[in-house]
Amino acid sequence: MKRQFLFITAIGIAVSMFSFTAIVQQNTAPLVKITSPKVNTFSWGSLVSYSISVADKEDGDSKFDEINGLEVLLEVKFVPGNAKLPPGNQASPDEAGLAVMRASNCFNCHNFNNKLIGPSFNDIVARYPLSAANVALLTKRIKEGSVGVWGKAAMPTHPELTAVEIEAAVKWMFKQAADPNVTYYTGLDGIFRTKAAPAGNKGAYVITASYTDHGLKASPGKQRMTGRDVMVLQSK
Rounded to a whole number, what is the largest CA-CA distance in the chain? Predict the structure, then answer.
């Protein structure tokens, strides 16, 4: 009887340890690094080449082509005067609308400035000026899907998103397009152009690279985490 009790106790401890391990299993945040430009200065009206590396324990490493470049985002923000890195060199968390777009498949079909499979976000905003009616129209088309609106490419349905989530994404799209000092790019590398010299010849660019992983392999979409890297480019 004593041996049986010890055996049952051992099984109970093993089960408890397994359960504890499952409970504490955590996703690891991706490591994002702006590898280019190498210097933190720029010239007015010039082209700036950038490159980004991403390494994630669960998703893989960009150097092995294991990261979808369309899911890597670069925010280029012009700041008049001088700019400093945010506290701890960390950018602010994504706004609700952008977080929804990252969690869905938006960036697989849409870019910010150029046509991909579907129209760019800026082209959509240009065709549909901001209004309650157009926000409702775009929300409906994203939720239910559409075909023939922008040529032969079809907009798939998005049953996994609520109307509230889609509306937040649509409103964020209008907001980012209306800000002349902020531009977004997708991809692990690319080029952006700086502004012509402003009055006083002072200004800086804050560039933020980010990637949101796919969560735990055992539970895709769970515990998704975003890694970021921030760099300030000062005018020469």
Answer: 89
The token duo for 228 is 């970021």
| One-letter-per-residue 3-state SS of 22-62 | HHHCCCCCCEEEEEECCCCEECCCCEEEEEEEEEECCCEEH
Q: Is the sign of the CA dihedral 152, 161, 104, 37 positive or negative? A: positive
> What is the residue whose two structure tokens read 């964020």?
172
Domain that holds residue 143: 2-235
pLDDT, tens digit only, all 236 positions of the chain: 545 544 445 445 444 444 444 455 688 899 999 999 999 999 999 999 999 999 999 999 999 999 999 999 999 999 987 766 665 556 678 899 999 999 898 999 999 988 999 999 999 999 999 999 999 999 999 999 999 899 888 899 999 999 999 999 999 999 999 999 999 999 999 999 999 998 888 889 999 999 999 988 766 667 889 999 999 999 88
At 115, is the secondary structure helix, strand, or coil?
coil
**pTM summary value:** 0.83
Give the number of domains in the chain: 1
Q: Which long-range contacts (CB under 8 A, 24 or more apart) does 163-167 make?
A: 163/139, 165/100, 166/100, 166/139, 166/142, 167/135, 167/139
Q: At 154, which CATH number?
A: 1.10.760.10
Bond before 37 cis per omega within 30 degrees: yes
